[in-house]
Design goal:
The protein is an alpha/beta fold. About 35% of the residues lie in helices and about 20% in strands.
């Protein structure tokens, strides 16, 4: 046990959201379970696998299963973790995706760095989400960010009263960006390590063709339903934060437009993507949010 965890100021719980999980997803928990005092497992599967629940509780006695027989969304799941953490007097919440895990050396460095940050102004402490040759050694070094992805973050529960909860209307995608931008507007810090990483999967690798097979492209792709949320919620961010974070929003929109272009030009399901992207724009302009595609 790390010495800093003996301090009340660093009492830590965790949350992982699972959706139709497989055994490898459950095994990922092993990489961080010993660094937290309690793990809340939110099962967003429409038909939860009770055998998986039994296996989680058998392997990880400090885990607690929260399952409602439906997909409540990432934002609602994270809010459950915040509420549970506050009810039980935890100070930090580790937020994990089911397909993410830490290397043992990386998580030790990441958690030990908690002792060197200012908890009065640090809203989120995040590892790097890309593995490079330069980000694996030494004392964790952090830089301020406008936003970070949720997976692997240590979220400061004592500042959630100022920032507020995650926006459940967004359901999934951009819920982390929205939270981070709100924290930034309050003058709080979003810190991400430049030399300490987590292993994280972003979509599936896809290779598609364009112009009757003459051009091919390999890229990470999400399902048409996920693209609906990605597009709709990026429009929400642009509208809400365009004036306060013009540079970030411009870069974000450029990235989203690239993903739209890749799906339409190179996917064999371009018509399905077009339908969901069109629906995303329509729902945004009609101010319709929540789970509008029944995932």
């Amino acid at each position: 046990m790390h010495e800093f965890r003996k301090l009340d100021a660093h009492k830590i719980c965790g949350i992982v959201t699972i959706y139709s999980p497989i055994i490898s997803h459950i095994d990922n928990i092993k990489s961080y379970i010993d660094f937290i005092d309690r793990l809340y497992v939110v099962d967003n599967s429409s038909t939860p696998d009770e055998n998986i629940h039994v296996e989680i509780l058998r392997k990880y006695p400090t885990a607690e299963i929260l399952s409602y027989g439906k997909n409540i969304g990432i934002a609602a799941a994270l809010n459950l973790g915040i509420k549970k953490g506050l009810e039980n007097n935890y100070s930090w919440l580790l937020t994990m995706d089911q397909d993410s895990c830490f290397d043992s050396f990386q998580i030790e460095r990441f958690f030990d760095s908690l002792a060197f940050i200012d908890p009065r102004r640090t809203a989120i402490l995040s590892p790097a989400h890309e593995v490079t040759a330069d980000n694996a050694v030494g004392i964790c070094v952090y830089e301020k960010k406008d936003e970070v992805m949720t997976s692997g973050n240590l979220l400061n529960l004592r500042l959630t009263g100022k920032i507020g909860l995650f926006n459940e209307e967004l359901f999934i995608d951009s819920v982390d960006h929205d939270y981070c931008l709100r924290a930034n507007l309050l003058g709080l810090d979003i810190l991400q390590a430049v030399n300490c990483f987590i292993r994280h999967t972003v979509g599936e690798v896809y290779s598609g063709s364009f112009l009757f097979g003459m051009k091919r492209k390999t890229f990470y792709i999400h399902s048409p339903e996920r693209m609906y949320f990605i597009v709709r919620n990026s429009l929400y961010l642009s509208k809400k934060y365009g004036k306060d974070f013009p540079v970030y929003i411009k870069q974000h929109r450029k990235f989203i437009n690239l993903k739209i272009s890749q799906c339409i030009r190179y996917s064999d399901e371009r018509r399905i993507y077009l339908r969901f992207i069109f629906k995303a724009y329509c729902d945004f302009f009609r101010n319709k949010y929540g789970n509008r595609v029944n995932i």
